[in-house]
Amino acid sequence: IEVQVARDASDNAQVGQGISYQGIPYYLSQMNEWVRLYSTASNDILRSGTLDDGNAGHNMYVGVHDIKGTELDLEKSNRIVDENDIFYDVTETDGFTHFMSKEGRTYRVPAKGSKMVDNSGTEYTIDDIQMDGGKIKLPPELTLSYTDKDGNAATRNITLNDRADYYLLTAGNMQVADELVVDPDLLATRHENNNVSDGVEKNDIVKDLIRLGKDTDMMSFRGCSADQYLVTILGDVALNAQRAHKFTDNYTYMQKTISNQRLSVSGVDNDEEAVNLTKFQQQYNMASKMIQVLSEVYDKLINQTGV
Q1: Would you tell me the crossing angle of helices 24-47 and 229-266 to the nearest 10 degrees?
Q2: pLDDT at position 281
Q3: What does residue 224 show for φ and ψ, rounded to 5 degrees?
Q4: Do residues 75 and 169 make contact, with C-beta atoms less than 8 angstroms apart?
């Protein structure tokens, strides 16, 4: 007897788990994954740029919150993801530590003493932020204290991944930021502002965005570059369509075979029945003629001979 075990609360939700058929949920998840990867890479490039007023560039791609109807702020989040893809909600958002990584990406780390809750419901307190020469290690490592299932005090270390609410971004709610639509000057086109050796026409950010479509080191989707998204998806569509046609043909042939076997026993063949009808009609006619002849013989023998 197979025993069904309840799923743990810390399990991550998946699309199509246990189902080999790649249907609409599979293609939706593929679209969402590509949108998040491309938006993250593009926004990171743009935020590393500099505007004319000296400020950092702004995100181009944002999403709309499904419930609130407002734009997602992809640089401000109260959720952390560790290397095991476990989410932690920060219940105390004051005292965030900001710092710039060597790649130009901004991380936001909760300060010591902040409270966190993971997706299994366990509450943690940040005890320590690992430092290296006065700087937070990249990626940051946090020491958390919590109470285990037996009620004992315990600690654990986690390594954080990129901080952003990109998991809320989908192919359905993705859009260009309203502020860029209103003011295109917020779109960064170069890394430097002062002492630009290439002059005001420097556009290395734009070149990076163009290179993003071809360079797998900047973004990789299923081992391919960003501009190969449709190729990979259409390849899946072609293979799945072929499998579906073969599946339909195979079961159509099986249905016809079973139907023919049934008809061979209980079915009616019009040609065979027509032949039988003709044969039985001829037999009836012959029997009728024989009865008529015997009737005439009887008549001659009895009535006309006077016996």
Answers
A1: 180
A2: 92
A3: -115, 170
A4: no
Please calculate the CA angle 97-169-82 and round it to the nearest 5 degrees. 45
Q: What are phi and psi of 136, to 5 degrees?
A: -70, 135
Q: Looking at residue 249, what is its pLDDT?
A: 92
Predicted pLDDT of residue 221: 84
Chain centre distance of CA 146:
34
The residue behind tokens 């003493």 is 113
- Strand-pair partners of 274: none
**Selection from 30, 91, 27, 12 nearest residue 221 by Cα:** 30
Query: Mean pLDDT in each 10-residue stretch from start to end of the chain (307 residues)?
Result: 47 58 82 87 84 83 82 64 64 50 50 75 80 63 83 83 67 88 86 61 84 85 86 88 90 91 77 88 92 86 71
Tokens 């299994």 locate to 120
Q: How far apart are CA 127 and CA 111, in angstroms?
A: 9
Listed in sequence order, the residues at least 6 apart from 169 whose beta carbon sits closer than 8 Å to its beta carbon are 32, 35, 36, 39, 61, 62, 63, 72, 74
In whole angstroms, give the CA distance from residue 27 to residue 37.
15
Residue 122 CA to residue 144 CA, distance in Å, equals: 11
Distance CA 102, CA 19 (A): 42
Is the pTM of the predicted complex or chain greater than 0.85?
Answer: no
Q: What angle do CA 48, 49, 54 make, to 5 degrees?
A: 120
Peptide bond into 139 cis (omega under 30): yes
Nearest CA among 45, 139, 124 for reference residue 87: 124
**pLDDT value for 2:** 44
Q: Give the CA-trace dihedral at 283, 287, 290, 291, to 10 degrees.
A: -170
- Residue of 84, 89, 101 whose CA lies nearest to 161: 84
Q: Which residue has the tokens 């199509």?
A: 16
Cβ atoms 184, 167 nearer than 8 A: no
